[in-house]
Structures are given as C-alpha cells and as structure tokens.
Design goal:
Elements (H helix, E strand, L loop, with lengths): L1 H8 L3 H13 L4 H20 L6 H15 L9 H7 L4 H13 L7 H11 L1
Helix pairs in contact: 3-4, 3-5
C-alpha cells in the first residue's frame, strides 16, 4: 500500500513525509483512513490504467475516474477534495501530479521484462 500512496502524492520528499506523518498520527482512525485511501488509490489506478484505453468499457472507467479526480469539490464527504483533505493531502497538488504523469511518455519496456513476460505466457 505504501508504494500506491507514493504514486498518488508524487516524488516530493517533504510531501511524502507530511503524508506519512498524518497517517501515523491518525492510527486511532485507521479503518476510516484506510477506506479513504483505498477510494483514492482505486481512482488513481483507474485513471492511469485506462488513460489510453481503446475499448468502450475502459474509456468509461477512465471517464468516471477523471470526473471524480479532476472535478471540483461539492461538499460531499466522499468527493475527491474531501478525501484528500481528510488524508492530509492538497487536492490541487495531487491533480497536478496526475496530469503531469498522464502527459509523460511511458517508460519503454526493458528486454528483461519482455523476456519474463514472454516466458510467463508460454
């Protein structure tokens, strides 16, 4: 889960430390925080995974994730802005990181990874 959290908040060391400090302070609210974190991680996962989807179902999943992530806060407890604030994250900072990641070219697959993937398929 820690790896997913880092992908959400980006690579800025001070932001990562703020996130982990907030999570440690709130151990008494762990189930609630875990639920909020799972909601956020699922949306980020769908946003990234389906960003280049060509099929109808994938495009719809991306659209739903993008709408929730990029939409403005509406005061609903499970809005993106509310979830971020309850987790101690700046919603605009997270949005900016998601947009930048979407624009960045995908890393080329290494020869070793292709070889492993090919062996697993065989």
């Amino acid at each position: 889960m820690q790896e997913n959290a880092l992908s959400i908040i980006g690579s800025d060391a001070s932001t990562q430390q703020q996130y982990f400090d907030a999570m440690q302070r709130s151990e008494h609210l762990e189930p609630e925080k875990a639920l909020l974190q799972a909601i956020l991680e699922d949306a980020v996962h769908c946003y990234r995974k389906y960003a280049t989807a060509r099929d109808r179902a994938g495009r719809e999943k991306f659209r739903e994730a993008e709408e929730w992530l990029m939409g403005g806060g509406n005061g609903w407890i499970f809005s993106f802005d509310s979830v971020c604030e309850l987790l101690g994250l700046d919603p605009q900072y997270v949005r900016r990181g998601l947009r930048e990641a979407k624009l960045a070219p995908a890393e080329p697959e290494s020869k070793e990874r292709r070889h492993l993937r090919h062996r697993q398929a065989a």
